[in-house]
Design a protein that fits this description.
By secondary structure, this protein is of the alpha/beta class. It contains 7 helices and 7 strands; from the N terminus they run βαβαβαβαβαβααβ. Helix 4 packs parallel to helix 5.
Length: 251
């Protein structure tokens, strides 16, 4: 780490998380990047980000392990020279048909999307409040438009957990003001899944027929909104910005 500002991004070694890391590196940040699986990609990610001038530290983080999540956040709160931006990006996108829903599956999603982010924020908020950035410290959380009143079939547990994250954003925007701004983005499709639900072309085409812009977004589309909320939106807090190509507007 150098004297540059520092951003922490969870789930940051691929897809949207990596795009966010890249955007923050280009904006002059050093990075703390967490990963759960995919440790084999760390060297590749470092080789991509360090030429942009960023110091990069990787931390393993399994958000279903609440004790480990808190321990990591508490250690970083002590060890980091500063912390300016926290991005809650890590996510688990899985369908949960009601007949197959279990207490364990619901609890796992709640831990990943709501409980662990809240506990991590508890430990890191005091460091964010010390940020010298012009807009102060910033937290950005990745929601989902389908957890904002546009529900999808067979995703009740997932949507519930993302809705809890959205309410965390609004609540912490009050709790952490005026030193820390807290916002979220609600993507539609900015990267189709690599496998499983909606990884096949037919399902993707069916979804895009409901998108007014008639295309999917990209990880960079989401990353740019995260960067804007973190660095430029100095008078914005408690907001959820939809990044969905207009999908919100269609039934």
């Amino acid at each position: 780490m150098t004297a540059r500002p520092i951003a922490m991004v969870t789930g940051a070694t691929r897809r949207v998380g990596l795009a966010i890391a890249r955007a923050m590196a280009r904006s002059g940040f050093d990075l703390v990047l967490t990963y759960n699986t995919g440790s084999g990609r760390l060297a590749e990610v470092r080789d991509e980000l360090e030429p942009l001038g960023a110091g990069v530290v990787f931390e393993h983080l399994d958000l279903t392990d609440l004790g480990a999540s808190e321990s990591l956040a508490a250690r970083l709160a002590e060890d980091l020279p500063r912390l300016d931006v926290l991005v809650h990006n890590a996510s688990a996108y899985v369908p949960t048909p009601l007949a197959q829903t279990t207490a364990a599956s619901v609890e796992s999603l709640m831990r990943v999307h709501a409980i662990a982010p809240l506990l991590i924020t508890k430990h890191l908020a005091p460091r964010l409040a010390q940020s010298a950035l012009p807009g102060g410290g910033a937290i950005v959380a990745m929601g989902d438009i389908h957890a904002l009143g546009r529900p999808r079939r067979d995703f009740a547990a997932y949507a519930m957990s993302k809705a809890a994250l959205v309410e965390m954003v609004r609540s912490l925007a009050r709790d952490l003001a005026p030193r820390v701004r807290v916002n979220g983005i609600a993507p539609g499709v900015v990267a189709f899944p690599d496998e499983g639900h909606e990884s096949d072309p037919a399902a993707q085409e069916a979804y895009l027929r409901k998108v007014p812009l008639e295309r999917s977004g990209t990880p960079d589309d989401a990353a740019e909104v995260v960067r804007w909320l973190a660095l430029d939106a100095h008078y914005v807090t408690g907001e959820i910005v939809r990044v969905d190509g207009g999908r919100w507007l269609t039934p």
